[in-house]
Amino acid sequence: MPPNPTPTAPSAPVSSISSLIPPAESAGAAPLLSVRDLQTSFPLRSALLRRVVGEIQAVAGVSFDIPAGGTLGLVGESGSGKSTVARTIIGLEKARSGSIVFEGEELTSLPKASMRRVRRQLQMIFQDPYASLNPRATVEQIISEAWEIHPDVVPRNRHRAEVRDLLERVGLNPDHAKRYPHQFSGGQRQRIGIARALALRPKLVICDEAVSALDVSVQAQVLNLLADLRRDLGLAYLFIAHDLSVVRHISDQVAVMYLGRVVETATQDELFQRPLHPYTQALLSAVPDPKPWTKPEREPIIIGGDVPSPADPPSCCRFRTRCWKAEDICAEQEPVLETRLDRHPTACHFATDLAGATR
Ligand SMILES: Nc1ncnc2c1ncn2[C@@H]1O[C@H](COP(=O)(O)OP(=O)(O)OP(=O)(O)O)[C@@H](O)[C@H]1O
């Protein structure tokens, strides 16, 4: 297990994240993906002359590990920087600072040609399968496209048979390989997207809101498929969603993001049963109750105000402007993501165990 990173600049709190690595897998084995103090910014331009007038800190010091075969759920409201984390990992955005180590290789300084090789192992599934599938290509063409660039993975004479195998693996009829995306339902299209992501036999798949656009029953089927694929192929996932209930069923570990930072991280069980950060507690209190006829486990917590702009985030604790527990110290001292109440890493001066307090 790598040493815990030391807290660095006040703008980028990092601390003990060892709880992100389940003990059994961390013993001696390096994580498949290790992200340390990642920062990604975009220029803020004036509306009129498009001059750069500031900086949008979309990701402001994020750290986590994903072991081989593990799943990290990354959750947070819209605009918290989840997609930017994903896009930076696969090289679509440039990291401003920090480190991304995948299978022992530092990706932030990797030449483009080497990145192409690494990208084989690192695939992404997007929210809108229809927008990400070429409407004029057949399913067979869509899935086999990657093999044109990487012919060593599957030789041309094997394309048809491999496409059939992949379609079967994702629960689609292999005889439909010559059909076009519009001939499939939303859930089926997402399965095509999954088959395409699997074509290069990746080790890590980043699912960016991969089931958010689907009906609840279809969501469950696709989540089950992803869980089966993980078990059968040993895949690891970075599973991004704004909906905590979606993340719950697929993740071993969960990291909660707010305005570019991870504010709490724990095992799935721990996070759902005993959230410590006020933001996580509020997010969880908004998850619909699966048994509405029983007494609710938690009173709903309403977060006041709007999400501040990442171009001008609140100093020190970024959540303090919307937090019902905030006090002067929250504007004076950066809360570091560290193990609190003997439990799991949380970045809050006033972390409390609501569950523990009420039991
Ligand atoms: N290319 C870009 N140029 C400028 N700002 C950007 C760009 N991409 C993202 N942002 C800004 O960075 C912040 C984080 O966006 P991001 O899409 O990563 O958040 P998110 O948590 O994934 O939200 P969503 O679920 O809505 O995509 C937002 O304020 C967004 O407006």
TrEMBL record:
One of its GO terms (molecular function) is ATP hydrolysis activity. Pfam families: ABC_tran (PF00005), oligo_HPY (PF08352). GO terms for biological process: peptide transport; transmembrane transport. InterPro entries: AAA+_ATPase, ABC_transp_ATP-bind, ABC_transporter-like_ATP-bd, ABC_transporter-like_CS, Oligopep_ABC_C, P-loop_NTPase. PROSITE patterns: ABC_TRANSPORTER_1, ABC_TRANSPORTER_2. CDD domains: ABC_NikE_OppD_transporters. It comes from the Bacteria. Belongs to the ABC transporter superfamily. This is ATP-binding cassette domain-containing protein. The lineage of its organism: Bacteria, Bacillati, Actinomycetota, Actinomycetes, Propionibacteriales.
